[in-house]
Amino acid sequence: MSAEMDTEAGNVANTSGITPATIETALKAKLAAQYVKIDDISGGCGQAYEATIVSPLFVKKTTLARHRLVNSALKAEIAAIHAWTPKCHTPEEWERKQAQEGVGLPQGV
User: Fold this and answer.
1) Ordered strands of the 48-54 beta sheet
2) Is the pTM of this model over 0.85?
3) HEC profile of the chain
4) 35-76: per-residue pLDDT in tens?
């Protein structure tokens, strides 16, 4: 990426006001999320994010229903960015996934 493109990408991220921290705060407040990990997959421009979200509100919901719940909670944030990929888990699913991967649970989950 050229220096000019880097500057332009940075300006876009700065004007949208959307950061991993703002997304995380919104998810914790609106969805009672117990664990949130936001990754900027845009190469630094702040316009594409992938999220891992663990919330008890996802219990007994299909993947589509979970995504709709998240997208509804983040309607304004999603409108301001280019790409959004949520990965939604219940606390029990997350615990099983972490156990299978041999990873300890993050604190607070």
Assistant:
1) 35-40, 48-54, 83-89
2) no
3) CCHHHHHHHHHHHHHHCCCHHHHHHHHHHHHCCCEEEEEECCCCCCCEEEEEEECHHHCCCCHHHHHHHHHHHCHHHHHCCCEEEEEEECHHHHHHHHHHHCCCCCCCC
4) 999 999 988 788 999 999 999 999 999 999 999 999 999 999
